[in-house]
Amino acid sequence: MTSKDLTFAIKGIRFDEDYRPSDNTRITTNFANLARGDNRQENLRNALKMIDNRFNDLADWDNPDGNRYGVELDIISVEMSIGGDASSKSFPMIEILKTGIIDREADTRIEGIAGNNFSSYVRDYDFSVVLAEYNRGRTAFAAPDGFGTLHGNLFRHFVSSDAYKANFRKPPVICLSVSSSRTYHRTENHHPVLGVEYRQSAFSSTDEYFEKMGMKARYFMPRGSAAPMAFYFTGDLLGDYTNLELIGTISTMESFQKIYRPEIYNANAAAGKCFRPSLKHNDYSSTLIVYDREERSRLAIEQGRFAEENFIKPYQDILAQWSAEYAL
After folding, report:
1. Which candidate, 33, 35, 164, places its Cα nearest to that of 93?
2. Which of 23, 66, 72, 91 is 20 to 30 A from 50, comparing alpha carbons?
3. How many helices (H) and strands (E) does the chain have?
4. pTM, to two decimals
5. Where are the domains of the chain?
6. What is the spatial distance between Cα 108 and Cα 100, in angstroms, rounded to a whole number?
7. In whole angstroms, what is the distance from residue 34 CA to residue 295 CA?
C-alpha cells in the first residue's frame, strides 16, 4: 500500500449558538460537551462572546469602541479512506477548528488559522488505551517503543495532502494547555501579539507526541493572560501568520481553556517568572459556563477503544507497513 491509497475527505460545520452535536458522527468532545443539556444555547452564546471580547481586546489598534471584529468558527472533520475500491470504509481521523475574522468596519472577512483545537481518535487510542495498558503495574511511567509514530505519520500525510491544500492556505497551528508535569521559565523574548515567551528544559509527553506529527512547540503568554499556552506549528510561528490570524487563535483557545481549565487559565494571579501549572490550584474564577471534565476523560477511553476496534485492529498490518515505508 502506498500513500496514494490513503485519501482524506474534509467536512465543516459552523460552531455557533445553534450548533448541535450529531449522535452518529465524530464531534470534538469539548465542543459537544458545551452544546448539551439545558444550558446549551447559553453556554455557546457566552463562550462565543468571550472569544469576540478577547479578540477586540488584543486587536485594539484602530478599534476605539472595542467591537470592530467578530470571530467565526468552523469545526473541520477529517475522514480517511484506505484503498480505492468501493467497499473501502472511511474512518473519522481528526477534528480541528478553523477561525474566520469579520472586520465590521471594512465589511470584509479574513481567513484565519486552521488547527487551534485538536481532537483525534487515534490519539485517544494512544493515550487512553496504549499508555494505560503499557504502564499498568509499572512503578515508573514510560511509553512503549514507537509510541505515536503511526499517528504522527498519518497527520503529516494529511497536512501534505491535496485535500488539505485545497481547503487551507497555510499550515496548521494547534494551541493547547501547557503541561502540569513541567516547569516553565519566562524569557526576555516578547512578541507584540503572542506576548512573553516561556521555555522549559524538557519536553512533555504531549510535546514529544506533536514532534512526531512534524510540529515544533513554543510557549507564549499574551498580554492579559493568566498563563502561557503551548503553540504547535510546522513552519515559522512568528513569521508565517499575520497579527490578526494569531489573535484569532489566541482569543479562541484561551477562552476555551478558561472554561476547560480555569485553575490555570482563569487564575486570579498571572504566572510568574517560574511557573508550574496545576489543576489543583484553588485561587481562580469560574466562567459559569457548564463543562463536564469527567465526561471528557471517560469519552477519551471510549473513543480510544472505538479506534482500536474499527481502525487499528482491522488494518494493523497494512498500517504498520505503510507507516514504516512513509518514514523512509
Report:
1. 164
2. 23
3. 11, 10
4. 0.93
5. 3-326
6. 10
7. 11
